[in-house]
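Annotators were shown the component list below and the corresponding predicted structure, then asked to write short factual statements about the assembly.
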Amino acid sequence: MKSKILYFALIWVVSLTFTKSFAQIIPVKETVITGLKRPWSMVFITKNDVLLTEKEGNLLRINLQSKRKTIIKGFPSDLVDSLDVNYGKGNNSGIFEVVIDPNFSINQYLYLSYAAQTPNEGTTTKIIRATIKNDSLTQIKTLLIASPFTKQNHHYGGGLKFGSDQKLYITIGERLFYEIDEPATPIAQDPTDKRGKIYRINPDGSIPNDNPNFGKNAVAGLYALGIRAAQGMAIHPETGDIWFSEHGTIQGDEINILKAGANYGWPLVTSGQYRSKDYNPPKVDVSTLTSPVWFWRQTVAPTGLAFYTGKEFPAWRNNLFVPGLSGGSLWRFKLENEKVKSVEQLFVDEPVRLRKVVQSPDGKLYLLTDELDGKIIRIKKP
Amino acid sequence: MKSKILYFALIWVVSLTFTKSFAQIIPVKETVITGLKRPWSMVFITKNDVLLTEKEGNLLRINLQSKRKTIIKGFPSDLVDSLDVNYGKGNNSGIFEVVIDPNFSINQYLYLSYAAQTPNEGTTTKIIRATIKNDSLTQIKTLLIASPFTKQNHHYGGGLKFGSDQKLYITIGERLFYEIDEPATPIAQDPTDKRGKIYRINPDGSIPNDNPNFGKNAVAGLYALGIRAAQGMAIHPETGDIWFSEHGTIQGDEINILKAGANYGWPLVTSGQYRSKDYNPPKVDVSTLTSPVWFWRQTVAPTGLAFYTGKEFPAWRNNLFVPGLSGGSLWRFKLENEKVKSVEQLFVDEPVRLRKVVQSPDGKLYLLTDELDGKIIRIKKP
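Structure shown to annotators:
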C-alpha cells in the first residue's frame, strides 16, 4: 500500500516535471491597486502594507489586501509636483523615492526624496528622513539639498537605496536637457557641483569616513560622478554591489555597477547620441572612465530596477529586472558575475510606462505604472 | 524494499526538479566545424551528414562527426559569388539556400537558390532542382529565374522552404538599395515584376492551381507581395504557417506570417526609416496591407529563422529563434498563437554575425556564422 502511494507520487511528480514545470511559462499581470497619481516608489512595511509615493500626488500607505489607501499628511510644503504650472510641461518633479531604515522595526525611520522649490530661485532634489505618527510625517530632518535651485525641470534623480554596508546611497541628476548648456567643466564632471553625482551618507546625514576622496573642494558625501539622469538602484543578491540604471539622451540608456570613486563619463562620452548635435565635450583619457555593464541600442528610459530572489519563478532567480518608461516593457537580465548573458523583453504585447519593480518580503514581484491612473501590478504565473 | 527504492526515486526526482531543472540555464556555444566561407544554409540528409552552402564558396557535404568536408562539384557555371570583382563591395551574391525534397529518401531531389549572372546584363536570383551523383550535381532543372538581370548587388532573397502543403515557397528580394530608384509603381508592389515577392510552386516548377489571383498579368507562382529583402522562412510547429524574416532599411527589421495574397507593404510603408530621406511613396489604403507580427526598434538584420521543437531545452519548446547578422545575437521569441509575448536576446556577450538557425532531426540546435572563417556552432547546456 505504502509502495503504491509512493509509486503514484513518483508518477505525479515526474509528469508534473515534464508537463508543467519544464514547459514554457508566460507570466501574466494582475492589477492589484488602481487610481494612483503616477506612482514612483513603493516599500513594504508589513506583509500587506506598503508606503507608496505618487509623483503627482502624495505619500500613501496602502493595504494591498483591503486596498485601503491612507494619505500621509504633513509632507514638506516646499514640494513641487509635476502639475505646478510654473515649471511647465515635461516637468520631472514630484515625490520620488521612499525607503525604510534597515532598523525600521526599531526606529521607524523612512527616507524620502522629492523636488523642492525656493520661490523665484527654482527647484532641486531634496532628501529627508522622517517618521509617521497619526498618519502624518513627523521628526522631519533634511539630509541633502542638491542645490543650486534652478529653473530646469529635468533629471532630479532621487534614487535612494541602503547598501549592504547600511549606508544610504543617493542619485542626483545633472538637471540639464541640452549638452550645449554645459559649463566648460561639465556639471557632472565637477566635484564641487552637487548635480550629476551619486552620494553615500550615514542614515543621520553625516558623511562616512571611508568615502572616496575627490579633493578638498569636493561636495560632501560624493561617491561617484559623471551621472546624467540615474534613478533606480538595486543590490546584487550575491555580490552586494549596487547596480543602477541611467537615462541616456537619444538612446544611450545604461545599466552600471556602482564603484567607489568611479566616473561614469557623462557628458564626456555617451553610448547614445547628444541632444545638441554640435556639442564637443572636453577631451578625456577614457581609461579613467567606468563603462556600463549594458547599454541598449534603442530608447528604453530604464528606472527603478530590482534583483529577483523569490521562489515563484525559479528560472528568474538572481536575475535583474528593469522597467522601461519608453516602450513600456519589462526587461530581464540573466547575469554571470558582472556580465550580461541574455536580455529578455517581457510583456511586449501589453506596453505601459513602468516606473518601478518591487519585490515583496515574501518574494512576489510588483510593478508600478507611470500613468495618471497609475497601478500596482503583480506579476504571476498564468 | 520496493517501497524504499520508490521513496528514494521520488526524493531524487523532486530534488532534481527543484535544483537543476528549475534553475536558470545559460546555454553555451560549441564550435563543431570551422573554415567555412560564409555559410548560408544547412540541411541534414542523415543523422550526421549535412549539405551546406557557402555564400562565397561551394555546396558542401559535411559529416559533423568525422568533420570531413566534400565539395559537391558541377554547380551551374552562371553562379556569381560575392568575391566577383565585377559586382563590387557589399555584394550579397553567392550560393544561398539548400533544402531537400519532402520525399528526399525516395527521389533524392534537392533545391538550391543562388545569384546567377548573364554577361553584360547583370545578376538575379535563380532556383534549381538537382540530385547528387558521385559528389557532383546532376539532373539540374531550373525552376525560377527572378529576372530582370540587373547591376544591383543587393537583396536577392533566396529563401526556400517546403510548406506543410508540400509546395515550395521562395523569397525574392526587391534588389534596390535606395527607394529613390523606385519606378512609379514600386517594384515590390507591381504584380508583373518578379522582384520583391514570395512564390509558391510545385516541386517540379509548375504552378499550383490554388495560388492566389493577382490578375492576369501577374508573374507565375506569385503568392504574396510588398517584400523588400526577406530570406528566412520557418514552419510554425502547431499551426503549419510559414513565418518569415525581413530586412528593413534603417531599423524596420520584421517578422511576418505568410498569408496567401497578402501585401506586406514595402515600400508604401515601413516600420523603420527610408534610406532616401525625401522618398514619397504612392498613397495607399493601409487596411489592405498585412502588418508584421514583430518589428525591432534597432537594426538586427534577421535571416534564417527556425522554430525549436527539441527536448534539450524544454522551456524553449515551440519558440521562434531568429539569428541576426547585425549585432550578432540570437533572438528567442515566446509566442501565444500569433502574438509575441516576450523576446530574449541571447549570447549578447559573444556577438558574431549569424546567418542561420538549423535544428537537426534529433532536435539539436545549430547556428551558422557569417564569417570568412565561418563556423557551425551547436547550442547546448553548460
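Statements collected:
1. Helices of chain B lie at 2-21, 104-107.
2. Chain B has one domain: 33-380.
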